[in-house]
Design goal:
10 helices
Length: about 150
């Protein structure tokens, strides 16, 4: 049996591919996913985020459901390790109503805090037509205004 710290050590980007694969396999068996949501301790931080995102990508929607807002927060900077993986996972999330609720909430947070970069990154989710159907009109308009490739 491996401790969560041992598993996280295996997920570090500077470990061999073999060790990282073992860490990913073991991490996939961990029931609690909150430890993989952008850890920020002295040993496990951005050095594990890419692999943490891979772990989260494989989790079923029911497991990720309570963590939709933290997953959307990962999109605050698409250069962060794992951010693109999280974006892709959110794009295939099945319960569009729950995702829409979380996205509406995060868009309002980003607007209030004037986080234009986060709004721009969340606007990438507009490329998924099924997501748009469950957003408030004000959210859609706001995200479209920050979308780089959006055609009106």
């Amino acid at each position: 049996m491996y401790s969560i710290n041992s598993i996280m050590d295996m997920l570090k980007w500077d470990k061999s591919r073999k060790i990282q694969r073992k860490g990913l396999r073991l991490a996939g068996k961990v029931r609690s996913v909150n430890v993989f949501l952008q850890p920020m301790d002295s040993e496990h931080n951005k050095n594990v985020w890419e692999n943490c995102a891979k772990v989260l990508y494989e989790k079923p929607d029911e497991t990720l459901s309570p963590y939709l807002i933290p997953l959307l927060e990962w999109l605050q900077d698409l250069t962060w390790p794992g951010a693109i993986i999280i974006l892709e996972r959110l794009g295939k999330y099945g319960d569009i109503e729950k995702l829409g609720f979380a996205l509406n909430e995060c868009v309002m947070r980003a607007y209030v805090t004037k986080d234009k970069m986060w709004l721009m990154h969340m606007s990438e989710l507009l490329s998924y037509d099924r997501i748009i159907k469950n957003l408030q009109l004000s959210t859609i308009k706001m995200l479209k205004s920050f979308r780089v490739d959006c055609a009106e």
